[in-house]
Amino acid sequence: MKKYLTIITILLFFNSSCETEKLGSNSPELIQFELAFTDDYKTLMPFDFAVDWSTAKEGFSEDFNADIFEFDVIWTGVVNPEDISLARKKNSTANGANYNISYKIIATKKGDSYNFYVAKFTTSDEIFTESLSLFELDSLDGYYSVYNKASEKISSKSYINGKFFIDFLLKEKENVTKRCSYVDVVTIHNYYNLRESGPELNFTRMEVQTYSICDNHTFAIDESNYGGSSMISGGGGGFTLNIVEDVILEDKIDFDTSFDPYPCQKTIITNALDAGTSITDLIQNIFNSDNNAILTIKTENLNGILQAANTTIVDPPSSFLITFNSQRLSVSTDFDIVNTAIHESIHATLFYFWYNGSFESSNESYAQLVKDFTKYQAGFGGNHHEYMTSLVNNISDSSYNWAINNGYSFNDFAEFDTAENPKNGLQEYLDILSWGGLTGTDTYNNLYPEGTLDRKKINDIINSESLPYESNANPKGAKCN
């Protein structure tokens, strides 16, 4: 159901620039602001920063209907908004690639009381500029929002080519019969993980809401005002405005210190869970997103080399633990480690579904996985493995992406390329490996009965990658040095 907000305003009310005064760096008032600034704004600005108190500007703000003080921020960490913008530009699938995001700290004073806010600007400029300001909106091509320390929006407005366009928080006025234009506001949420090489786009979600802007004879929709802006398109009474929100995901897939002696294996697991397939994206979106789910990975001796790993529940409904067998981790190949990492992460994901019921996502692949699992009602123990037989292709696809990104070529697997299968030899080989950990299921036994050549072939390949030191082993994967 569409929700409409009617914009009734007088253009002059949204004064886009005003007189400002700059405070001296030794101003007693400025020192008081610095002493009073104790709030944590990490949720609003997910970067390490300091406030540059020497840049203070004072002036009247329509958003506050009062005088405010505005300060620049200095980025002090290894990642800042410009890094995020560059990461978005590098990714051809990223939405809003040409948009930039910048911030200001806003302060108000009433008597001896000080309040602080964050102003967040999103612009279509190609070059970052420090001139963005609540006092200089006549040059803004984009939008801004002002948040209080509770992360609540107290103001949110869009300007196109320096002209006021829409107030997102203005309440609907009753009995409006004026001519209206309609604006579809597309909010693009880009979610990033922080990698050693810098920010990396993980996934994107989009939301659309329709607003109406009505002419009350003092503010009219003039399409010529908005031409040439990359943030808005359309005309003839209908517009689309793009909004970009960048979110840095907290990494909640953590390695225990027991993995410190296994840097090679740790890298393999990390990259395997970042393979960019529907199943690994689902794992990332659950455990590296802004919910409370946590996945910890450790290693210890599980008293028997045949067991690759296990997954347990640490603290329901959101904390889970994967334990790799240190005996096997030391001798098995990268293919076995990749398959085990994905396999055990699916266990953790199914436990998550069991406790939480679902995972909200607009991605149809994720939604279908959740629907299938909810319908299946898999809980604990063997039921997981029986359900996971329906995901062998997902596991194989993830292993294949990892293999291609790590120097493997299907040309080296020609012996596994069967004429009746449209997949290449590497894909077919990894299809076989994806049955690792599932050979005790009814589905496997029905598909590959005891005594058949297919069953022997699958078991031999799985054993070759997991126990490559055996005399009859013929692994195609490589061991960590």
Order of helices and strands: EEHEEHEEEEEEEEEEHHEEEHHHHHHHH
Strand content: 25-35%
Largest sheet composition: 8 strands, antiparallel
- Overall average residue pLDDT: 78
What multimeric state do the chains show?
A: single chain
What does this structure look like?
With 481 residues, the chain is of the alpha+beta class. It folds into 2 domains: 6-248, no CATH class; 253-466, no CATH class. It is 27% helix and 29% strand. It has helices at residues 28-36, 81-90, 263-272, 278-287, 326-329, 334-356, 364-376, 382-388, 392-405, 425-433, 442-447, 453-466; strands at 6-7, 20-22, 49-61, 66-75, 100-110, 113-123, 142-147, 153-160, 163-167, 180-195, 198-214, 232-235, 238-248, 253-255, 294-300, 309-315, 319-325. Strands 2-3-4-5-6-7-8-9 form an 8-stranded antiparallel β-sheet, covered by helices on one side. Strands 1-11-10-13-12 form a 5-stranded mixed β-sheet. Strand 16 and strand 17 (319-325) form a beta hairpin. Helix 6 (334-356) packs across helix 9. It is elongated. Residues 1-17, 171-177, 215-222 and 377-382 have low confidence and may be disordered.
